[in-house]
Design a protein that fits this description.
It is built from 13 helices and seven strands. The chain is an alpha/beta fold. The protein has a seven-stranded mixed beta sheet, sandwiched between helices. Helix 3 (56-65) links the parallel strand 2 (48-53) and strand 3 (72-76). The longest helix has 15 residues, at 212-226. The termini are far apart.
Length: 306
């Protein structure tokens, strides 16, 4: 299957990265390389791009898409390993970075990857197919309470207990090993007028399989520590859980004194690391919304190292 993916908010990312032609930039979620290509077009031969992705299919597609550029270093890795990645490359500071969080169009549309409730396939959902944990393992082996917690916390599903109980009852009779088996089970367990009431459970499973929120929380501060002064970090999110983490992390890192209120003088010596460039998230314009439906939920937040 051809790796297809349309990069969202590409113009806005390039505008907000403030690219220096001779700078070093990191695309932490390479995908097919749409954003990376735009970054490279703004770099000189002395500039450099470090391109990360944990999906080998994405890396292969991007290498083909970016074959005209020689100043790219490709790394198969989760972006939470950014410290090691940069250390291995002999780089301590960078001039900018991009995180485009979430699933690519290719991953969603490829039934074999098991991300979509629209295509029947194995219940997988791994972005890195070398990892052991799959959605099938979670659905068939996690306890009732664990399933409920995942569906509630990561999917914000109000029927989390009902769905979890139905899964446990069903798997005692047969293993739930395909996306359609899970989709049909969810639709039978609750009454809903939604077009796709299963979407929140699928989101929750994907987040759990790939540790998405944990990885995001663990990585933002690391990236910012590697930024040169005036270097920028652009983060694109696609649902409220991700956006909340980015928003709150940026707010914390923008603070100077963090002493308890009421102290006469500051004793923490805490200094702000960043300034927030856009107080409200940047969203897609009318044309992009028309041309790419998956841009509808995209939000871009930007910060600058100080």
């Amino acid at each position: 299957m051809e790796f297809k993916h349309i990069s969202v908010l590409a113009d806005e990312v390039i505008e907000n990265l403030n690219i220096k032609p001779d700078g070093i930039y990191v695309d932490l979620t390479l995908g097919k390389g749409g954003h990376s290509k735009r970054i490279l077009e703004n770099l000189s031969e002395n500039g450099r791009l470090i391109a990360l992705d944990q999906d080998k299919d994405a890396l292969n597609a991007a290498k083909e898409n970016l074959s005209d550029f020689s100043n790219v270093s490709y790394v198969k890795s989760n972006f939470e390993n950014i410290d090691k990645v940069l250390d291995d490359l002999g780089i301590s500071k960078i001039d900018g970075a991009l995180m485009d969080i979430g699933v690519s169009s290719y991953q969603i549309d490829n039934a074999e990857r098991g991300f979509s409730y629209m295509h029947d396939g194995p219940l997988d959902m791994r972005m890195d197919t070398s990892n052991e944990l799959t959605a099938e393992k979670i659905v068939n082996e996690y306890s009732l309470d664990e399933l409920q917690k995942i569906f509630s916390n990561y999917g914000e599903e109000r029927f989390s207990r009902t769905i979890a109980r139905k899964i446990v009852e069903t798997r005692d009779e047969q293993r739930i090993d395909t996306t359609f088996k899970l989709r049909d089970l969810i639709n039978k367990s609750i009454r809903s007028n939604e077009a796709h009431p299963e979407k929140r459970v699928f989101q929750a499973l994907r987040i759990e399989v790939n540790r998405e929120l944990e990885v995001l929380e663990n990585t933002l501060d690391k990236i910012i520590d590697h930024l040169n002064v005036d270097g920028r970090l652009c983060v694109i999110t696609f649902h409220s859980l991700e956006d909340r983490i980015v928003k709150n992390t940026f707010k914390e890192l923008e603070k100077d004194c963090i002493c308890p209120p009421g102290l006469p003088v500051c004793v923490c010596n805490h200094k702000a690391k960043i300034k927030i460039i856009n107080k409200k998230p940047i969203i897609a314009g009318k044309k992009e919304l028309k041309d790419n439906s998956r841009s509808k939920s995209a939000k871009l937040r930007v910060c600058q190292r100080i």
